[in-house]
Each structure stands twice: as structure tokens, then as C-alpha cells.
Amino acid sequence: MLVLKKHPIYITALALSMATGPLLAQNQQPRPPKKEGEIENQEITVEKSRKIDLPPAIRLFNKIPSLKQSEEQRKITYEFQDRPLTVADQKTTPNVLPPSVTQPDQQVPFNNYVKVGAGNYSSFLGEAFVASPNTANLGWEGSFRHLSSNLGPKDGRNSGQSENRFRLAGNYALNALKFSAELGYNRDVYGFYGYRPRTEAPPRDSIRQRLNTLHFKLGFENTDNETAVDYSLKTGVTVLRDLYSASEVDWGTNFNASMSISDQVYALLTADAYVTQRTDQLVDNRNLFRVTPTFKYASPLFTATVGVNAVNETDKRLGINRTQAFPVVSLDAVPTGNIHFFAGIDGDIMRNTLRSLLTENRWLSPNVLLANTIKSADFYGGSKGEIGGGFSYEGKVSYATYRNYHTFTNSWPDTTRFFVLYDGGTARVLTISGQLAYSLKDKFRSTLKGEFFRYGLDRLEIAYHRPRTTATWTNSFILNKKLFITADLYMYEGIQAKNFVTNTRYKLPVIWDANLKIDYFLGKQFAAFVSLNNIVGQNYQRYLYYPVQGLNFLGGISYSF
Fold it and tell me: Is the pTM of this model over 0.70?
């Protein structure tokens, strides 16, 4: 049963109702919206949980780096951290390990390239990258990518999509400082095609959505190794607008500094400031300020970090103004060789914005309630290291408690869109993760990773649309210095959903997604490529009523200069 927890924060009119009320865990099962003008006074919990992090399988093309890498670049590292849940997004090509633009044995690498390609589902790719020649103190680069599928997995153009990405970045070094700037624009067009089968498909324009995102960033950092204090400061504004009335302006500033107290003791400081305004039917002003001072002791056999994370969050619409402090303790011991054993505890208030929620699930309903994640405590421990013969590993166990744990569920009465549903109690999440990798010089790399999640929820009956088990296997091969192959396999299991209109619960089938990409270098400046995606051909549903494309392919040619 979904239960409403009484809390000092009130939303006196459930007429935040179609906008916010259905999003919260309440004393009874969610009901269809009330008649217009009907208001019910209730006390509502608005705290929210973190994102459960899974490796994304976003089908995008990335800029292609050189195959010739240094030993440090080739070294495989592991980092288990919070990432948005964007598994199996409706894109065209998977993000596997990227190939080189040119032959690995050429004397002078080319920095610039253009690429064109096409495939089934009426897909088209156009991409370009250009960078300035290497200079001592000035550098810049620009890129553009268009990737579209005119047809989709359901009713042709109704489930088609397109994306456009533009980015211009540069940096300038002056004495002991380096300045950087970046300008970017993204445009995503897609449809709410998760409607139930009917005699006639709805008009394409009636289910269309468009997201426009513009960002601008500035920063500077110290580059003088002789100074006592090392620091960097970055600030930027991101503006998001959709096809309807929703928009969000997010201004974020991040500061990092470190100072050496002795040969083995360091003082570290990170500070963040975010000022955010989301506008839909109502205006939502939400700010977050964070400061984290820590001290670090480092020796060849033992490293310890101790500090405190102090966070203040304000939300004018929800009447929130609170400050919380969390301990930050991290220990790492190296008893032998390159084998590490680590443990720690931390906590945080993690921002959740309209943009971050759309990254997780882009079929959101209008006026979704926004609130920040409170990670009360995360106890973790594990081991990582290199075990010889090209093998390395990491294993980790985490037990964390959260307030306002959030999930996504189909809205009502329109099940083609999603609400964010919050658990107002204390959610406990156990995560067991492991990773094993093998590397054979410049010829072969393989990484196998698995994660298991156990959700102990307080007010929600299940963790809607959260997987119980995930696994990924990525591989890259270089053959004959001209043939480059990347392959990956994704598995997600245990995803459950519920249609609150019919009160029916669904257990979605296991997701298997296999992908293959082949690049063949035709000369010093030309290369041909082909991508095969979702080779299993399964029209699986990552979110209820939204099947993905079956077997799809994309082939083309690139020219570097």
C-alpha cells in the first residue's frame, strides 16, 4: 500500500493535484484526478531519494580519439558512483569503446573529421569535428552531430526521433592560469508513442515533444605547480525549454582547492552553489549550496580522508530552508602489491532538476514535482586492484538509506506519460557490484560488470521501473592495424511497472541488448564503418508501453583532415 507520512512541510491544496499530488506516496492507492475545483487538504511529504546508478546504454556517436595511447591512458580504472538511470534510451547507436579516426601507424594524426551514414528506420547520421592546431597557450574545438530516425518501432513516424548537438569550446593559458569557455546547444525531438493499441493512431503533432537545451560555461584554474594552493573555479548557465510551457534555468558554480600541509597531509575544499528556477504552470525557485572541507593523509600503504559535508537547500514553492551535515570518511589500505581494500561512509543532499529527471525518463508528464534526494548515510566497502596477466578487478558492497526515494510510474488517466512517485519514508538500498577487466596491450580490451540491487521501501509497494540485476560486457579489438571492432552486451532484469488506471502490475521481460561496430581504414584519411544494434532483435520495454527499435544498423564513411 502507498502511505502518506505526515510532515512539517505542507502543500495545502492537492490542486498542486494533477501537477504534484499524484506524484507522492499516499495513504491509499492512487486515484484518478478529482473533478475540477475539488480541493482536499492534506499533509504531504516532499523529500525525495537519489538516483540508482546504472551504466547508460545511450546510442550516441562520440568523437574518435587516436588508437596510440600512453600506458597511463591504457590503464583500466574503476569507479562506482552515482549516475542517472538512462539504460536503453531510444537512440540509434550504442556508446561502445570508440575507434581511431585514422590508421594507428600513420606519422601525423589528423585532428579533424567529417562523417556521414545511413541505415534502416530511415536513419541518417551527419557529424563533424574541427580543432585548432596545437599551440603553446591557445586551443579550441568545435563539433556538430545530427542523428535521426524518421521511423520508429511503433506506427512509423509517430515513434521517430532526432537529435542535434553543437559544441564550441576553447582554453587560453596565461602565465600561471588557464581560462576555459564552452558553448553548447542540444535539440531533441521525439513523441509520446506509448499509447495503447487503438483502431487509429493519433496524429503525430498531437504527441510530439521537443527539448531545447542551451548552456554556456566559463572557468579558470591554477597551472603553477610551485604555488602552495591549487584551485579551480567553474561557473555556467543551462537553459532548458520544451515544446509546451515548461522551462528551467540552472546556474551552477563549482570551486575546488587543495593545499599541502606536509608531505603526507593535505587540506581539501570543494564548494558548490546552484540557483535554479523551473517554470511550468507554477514557478519553482530551488537553490542548493554545499561546502565540503576534508583532510587527507596519503602514504604508499594507507590513505585516509576525513571531513564533513554541509549542505543547505531552499525551495520557495515547498517552503523548504534547511541545512544538514553529513560525515565524510574514506579509508584505503594497500597490504600487498597493487591490491586495495577500502571502506567509508558519506551522505549528501543531491540535486534533482527537471533536466536530470528528463535524462532518466524523457516521457515525463507536465508539472512533475521536483525535490532533492537526501542520502542520509551510505556505508560501503570493498576491494580493487590488478592481479597480473592483464587482469584487474573491483568488488563493492553498499548499504544506503534515503529519504524521498523516487521512482517513475505511468500517469493517469494518460498512461503515455510518467509521474515521479516518492516514498516519504526511509528507503534502504543494498547494492552489490563487481567488475573484472582484461587488457592485452593495444590489441584487446574486455570489461565485465554486474550489479544487484535490493530495495527496502517504506511507503511504496515496489521500486517501479528500477531493475533488480544489471550486467554489461564491453569489448574492443584491433586487427591488422586497419580493422577495429567494438562489441557490447547489456542485460537488465527484475523491472516492474504498474498501470494505476487498471490497477494491473507488470513484470517486464528481461532486457538483452547486443551491439557490434566495425571500422575499416581505407587509407590515411578515409574509413568505413557499420554499426549493428540490438542484434537480438528484441523490442524490449525499458519503460512500460515504450518498445524500442528492433535490429537496426547504420553504415557510412568518414574523412579525416
Answer: yes
Q: 542 pLDDT exceeds 80?
A: yes
- Residue bearing cell 515547498: 318
* Distance separating alpha carbons of residues 464 and 467, to the nearest angstrom: 9
Q: What cell was used for 210?
A: 521537443
Q: Name the nearest CA neighbour of 137 among 170, 167, 183.
A: 170
Burial classification of residue 40, based on how many CB atoms lie within 10 Å of its CB (0-12 exposed, 13-18 middle, 19 or more buried): exposed
C-alpha distance from residue 303 to each of 289, 290, 295, 538 (Å): 28, 24, 11, 47
Q: How far is CA 133 from CA 137, 266, 527, 559, 560, in A?
A: 11, 37, 22, 18, 14
Q: Under a CB-based contact definition with an 8 Å cutoff, are residues 96 and 515 in contact? A: yes
Tell me the pLDDT tens digit for each residue of 420-432: 998 989 999 999 9
Does the N-terminal peptide bond of residue 153 adopt cis geometry, omega within 30 degrees of 0?
A: no
Name residue 167's amino acid. Answer: R
Per-residue pLDDT tens over the stretch 191-246 = 999 998 776 889 999 999 999 999 999 999 999 888 889 999 999 999 999 999 89
Distance CA 272, CA 254 (A): 5
**Given the C-alpha cell 532533492, which residue does it identify?**
372
Mean pLDDT of 361-367: 96
Coil, helix or strand for 405?
strand
Q: CB of 246 within 8 A of CB of 280? A: yes
- Give the phi and the psi of residue 354 in degrees, each rounded to 5: -60, -40
**CB under 8 Å, gap of 24 or more: what pairs does 250-254 form?**
250/274, 250/275, 250/276, 250/353, 250/355, 251/275, 251/276
- Per-residue confidence (pLDDT) for residue 396, from 0 to 100: 98
Are 63 and 110 in contact, with CB atoms under 8 Å apart? no
Q: What is the pLDDT of residues 112-122, one digit of tens each?
A: 999 999 999 99
**CB of 452 closer than 8 Å to CB of 431:** yes
Dihedral sign, Cα of residue 23, residue 27, residue 28, residue 34: negative
- Position 86 scores a pLDDT of 31
Residue 268: strand pairing partners: 258, 294
pLDDT at 257 over 70: yes
d(CA 248, CA 153): 31
